[in-house]
């Protein structure tokens, strides 16, 4: 875990901006027919033909959204792409292009930027998206990354947050809370390391949690899975800020209420054991943890048989009338009103 003091360091000033862009983009290849022109002109040229275009962007700032003391740069590059692809998939679209803009202070050598772009490239290769543009500039302090993802979809296939109807089932993909707990584990190890730098952390019990925090995967597969099952969600959103907060978005925009059941929330065994160790309530973590990048969607109740047995999905509740509000039914069969506290809410507690 010790830093290699002999690694080569090339200052960014030696390359200049165009040199840097050429250097970091030369290994990226273009895959999509819709990418008419990628990097290398004043603007990229994209051809969406008769489909609708989806555009989403995210800005990540060192010290606010990521901490480089435990986030390797390659993972950061990968994750910065994932959070944007996740938003395209949440519209039931296909992501085909990204742009990446970075600002870095002079504490980062070329080798650091190469690491970051290695993660971005891995994401592009794995998820089949083309890097078509971006910008690099200097910052006075720290690192900023902004990724924009561009996708496309048939008009009829796009799923908005606003289409949930009373009696619809509420479904989530994967499991919840692991990424938040991964962050708690990493923060704890950082504090231990500050006190005793020779302490080698034993993270074997937390591998899944840490992977979910450092290398999340966007659910590109869900759209195809639903098509195979002949299910079209009535509403959909990705879980970036926490289940509660995403349910609020769907209910507000669809003008409905909801009931979800504590005993239906999908939790990995590592989430349960780590919650016990950290004395955290696993239901709170699942509701407010955030950064899971799973998809939350609603389907008509007539599709119950199609989704109930699928191992990728958990039916966690159903949509109610707007005046019923948002309710959690506990294991003890009590009704508790849900609060919109997402990831930030939990962090401030
Ligand atoms: Mg989103």
Task: Describe the overall structure.
The structure is a single chain. The protein is α+β, with helices and mostly antiparallel strands. The chain folds into two domains: 12-153, 2-Layer Sandwich (60s Ribosomal Protein L30, Chain: A), CATH 3.30.1330; 169-348, Phosphoribosyl-aminoimidazole Synthetase, Chain A, domain 2 (Alpha-Beta Complex), CATH 3.90.650. The chain has eleven helices and 13 strands. The chain has helices at residues 12-25, 73-89, 110-127, 178-195, 207-214, 221-228, 243-254, 269-278, 282-288, 304-308, 343-348, and strands at 35-37, 45-46, 52-61, 94-104, 130-138, 143-153, 169-173, 235-238, 257-261, 295-299, 313-320, 326-329, 335-337. The strands form three sheets. The chain has a seven-stranded mixed sheet, sandwiched between helices. Strand 12 and strand 13 form a beta hairpin. Helix 2 (73-89) packs parallel to helix 3. The longest helix is centred in the middle third of the chain and has 18 residues, at 110-127. Bound molecules: magnesium ion (MG).
């Amino acid at each position: 875990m010790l830093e290699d003091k002999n690694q080569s360091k090339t200052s960014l000033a030696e390359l200049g901006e165009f040199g840097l862009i050429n250097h970091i983009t030369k290994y990226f290849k273009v895959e999509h027919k819709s990418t008419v022109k990628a990097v290398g002109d004043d603007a990229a040229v994209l051809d969406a033909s008769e489909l609708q275009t989806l555009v989403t962007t995210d800005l990540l700032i060192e010290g606010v959204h990521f901490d480089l003391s435990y986030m390797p740069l390659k993972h950061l590059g990968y994750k910065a792409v994932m959070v944007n692809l996740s938003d395209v998939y949440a519209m039931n679209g296909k992501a085909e292009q990204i742009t990446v803009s970075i600002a870095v202070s002079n504490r980062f050598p070329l080798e650091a930027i190469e690491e970051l772009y290695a993660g971005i490239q891995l994401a592009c290769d794995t998820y089949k998206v083309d890097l078509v543009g971006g910008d690099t500039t200097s910052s006075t302090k720290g690192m900023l990354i902004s990724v924009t993802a561009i996708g496309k979809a048939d008009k009829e296939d796009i799923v908005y947050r606003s289409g949930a109807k009373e009696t619809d089932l509420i479904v989530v993909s994967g499991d919840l809370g692991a990424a938040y707990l991964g962050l708690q584990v990493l923060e704890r190890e950082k504090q231990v390391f500050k006190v005793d730098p020779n302490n080698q952390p034993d993270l074997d019990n937390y591998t899944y949690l840490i992977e979910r925090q450092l290398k999340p995967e966007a659910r590109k597969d869900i759209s195809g899975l639903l098509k195979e099952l002949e299910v079209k969600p009535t509403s959909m959103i990705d879980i970036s800020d926490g289940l509660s907060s995403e349910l609020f978005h769907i209910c507000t925009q669809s003008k409905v209420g909801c009931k979800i059941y504590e005993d239906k929330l999908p939790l990995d065994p590592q989430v349960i054991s780590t919650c016990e160790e950290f004395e955290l309530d696993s239901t709170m973590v699942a509701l407010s943890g955030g950064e899971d990048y799973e998809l939350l969607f609603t389907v008509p109740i007539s599709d119950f048989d199609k989704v109930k047995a699928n191992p990728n999905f958990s039916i966690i509740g159903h949509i109610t009338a707007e005046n019923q509000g948002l309710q959690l039914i506990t294991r003890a069969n009590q009704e508790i009103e849900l609060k919109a506290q997402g990831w930030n809410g939990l962090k401030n507690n």
